[in-house]
Design brief:
single chain, alpha/beta, seven-stranded mixed β-sheet, 24% helix, binds zinc ion
Length: 258
């Protein structure tokens, strides 16, 4: 399985930087987990292939350019963009984003070939299919309804925490999987911002270190994501100080294969 955290920031020459302001993971060039930078960082080939988007929760950094992505493709789509999300998240997207005020309600619109956007409600705690992938969504501990995801192509399994603070069910499901190859987990704030991390339900390196004690899988790659750009270097130093084997930081723009 190939996974890329799409870049979301560019320097004066248009080159991608390591600052991660938006969240969008591209899997095997055709499925994404979240859609923060989906309209700004895909190649044209990828843009033609991505038709399935799993939205973990409706925060702006995870959906910012989703409406623009559908808008860009509007007249050429031969099949709808499928937005896979829990019923609660679908309701929030319809109420707060695709509401004719912030952007058009694409779920009710068609081009010459048919509907341009379709919601696919997903269950929690049991398997569902998205393209060639099998996925389990598990509610995590964030300030809006949010799911973590365990994604497998039958050979490789990758777990995505999404945005969360201390949680349990996610680990119960991850620990039950035969073999997890990689865990992509959030580390949003440095340790001295623990208060803000707590009220906004995110991890610091310290709380992440505690949380990882719940993980019973061995030997997997653990990559921190969702580092607030203003504190990136500090968070990286604090993660290193945890001295957890195979814990690194995911590099936006780089394709990882497991
Ligand atoms: Zn969030
Ligand atoms: Zn976020």
């Amino acid at each position: 399985m190939r996974v890329q955290l799409l870049p979301s920031s560019f320097d004066g020459h248009g080159r991608a930087t390591l600052d991660q302001r938006l969240t969008c993971f591209l899997i095997d060039d055709c499925v994404t987990v979240d859609a923060g930078s989906i309209a700004i960082a895909l190649t044209s080939e990828q843009r033609e292939q991505v038709r399935d988007i799993i939205v973990t929760h409706p925060h702006m950094d995870h959906i910012a350019s989703l409406p623009i992505f559908i808008d860009d493709l509007y007249s050429t789509l031969r099949e709808p963009i499928r937005v896979h999300a829990t019923p609660e998240v679908i309701e929030l997207l319809e109420r707060d984003v695709f509401n004719w005020n912030v952007y058009p309600r694409f779920s009710g619109l068609s081009n010459d070939y048919g509907p341009v956007m379709e919601y696919v409600p997903i269950p929690t705690g049991k398997e569902f299919k998205v393209a060639h992938l099998t996925v389990i969504a598990v509610p995590v501990n964030h300030i809006v309804p949010t799911v973590g995801l365990i994604v497998t192509d039958q050979k490789t399994t990758v777990a995505f925490s999404s945005d969360t603070a201390e949680t349990q069910e996610f680990w119960d499901v991850v620990n039950k999987v035969n073999e997890v190859d990689a865990l992509l987990i959030e580390a949003s704030f440095p340790n001295d911002m623990a208060k803000l991390a707590e009220v906004s339900r995110h991890f610091t390196p310290a709380t992440l270190g505690n949380e990882l004690k719940k993980l019973s899988q061995n030997g997997l790659d653990i990559l921190a994501v969702h580092l607030k750009p203003a504190y990136r270097e500090k968070i990286i130093q604090e993660l290193k100080a945890l001295k957890i084997a195979k814990l690194g930081v995911m590099e936006p723009g780089k394709t990882y294969s497991w």
